[in-house]
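Thought: the user wants the 3D structure for the chain below. I'll pass the sequence to the structure tool as-is, report back what it returns, then summarize two notable features.
Action: structure_tool
Action Input:
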Amino acid sequence: MAKYIYQHENWTDFIWDEGKIRALFGEVKYLQGHLNGMMSTIGFSQKEETLLNTFTFDILKSSEIEGELLNYDQVRSSIARRLGIETAGLVPSARNIEGIVEMMLDATQRYEQPLTEERLWGWHNALFPSGYSGAYKINVACYRKDEMQVVSGAAGKEKVSYEAVPQALVQQEMDKFLNWLNTDLRMDDILKAAIAHFWFIIIHPFDDGNGRIARTITDMQLARAERSPQRFYSLSSRIMVEKRAYYDVLQRVQWHADSDITQWLEFFLNCMKNALLSSEQAASHVLRKAKFWAKHEHTPMNERQRLMLNKLLDGDFVGKLQSSKWAKICKCSQDTATRDMKDLIEKEIFRQEEGGGRNTTYELTEI
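Observation:
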């Protein structure tokens, strides 16, 4: 009869095929360094904005993986206030959102501090400040007191997809996990982040919130890997894109009799690679925008022109640019729109695309 990985002796003596992950691991390390290098060249305000966006989406997507949709403006506002980032449109944040943000920022801004049982329980309390998960009362700020089954499927067709470590063994398993996380300095921190994620999920020590806390531990460990509280890519956003594969690989690897976690490491490193590539592309837009405005710092422009140029530089404009679209977005007449665009042509910022006539379209000369 098949056994779960934790039912085997010395199950945490994880092994993996070095040959299968070597190239992927090298790509991740390169992309990580390249992205940080790109971000070091942009201005302080752009860096703050990127950091704010990264943390916001990391929190939103980590909760969305579990089926919980948080309010974007409340999450963003809570992070901005706690990090002292000046930004427009701040709104009050609900108690549960404040708790989730507190957990994430404690993990990433205090990454050098050891993860203790007390700190972990504090995260759990911040995640469930009311003591309820939805309509259900749960044990908060302590390890679970009952056996745990992970059930999937529609009502009436539920299927047990996982039975967690027996409750009687949770304390000793968590003691071992926390000791390893805080004291084993031999392993590369990126691989350690991947293993910590998997190890914590297998123990499933809490009544609820295990997935979100596992991803928070991962974020803390990645901050340790970069020796920085700043993060310019969101792993949770990428996991959300690959949510089905995420659960599939966890389910497959939890049945391994020999503690081989190669499949999990491949998935994790691929997620990191794709998250870094996505952020690198976004950083390229930020750099291009910064260079554009540095070049045109003293070029006379009105507010309509600045609005439309920022939309184009941010990639927020859909389709071809025509004077009719300019007039609609800027809430001005067609004649005013045409004058604005001709002025930018004279300044060699715009050029007219081939064709002409009534449907004349324009584009930035620097794209």
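Final Answer: Structure generated. The CA atoms of residues 202 and 291 lie 47 Å apart. The chain has two domains: 5-288, 297-364.
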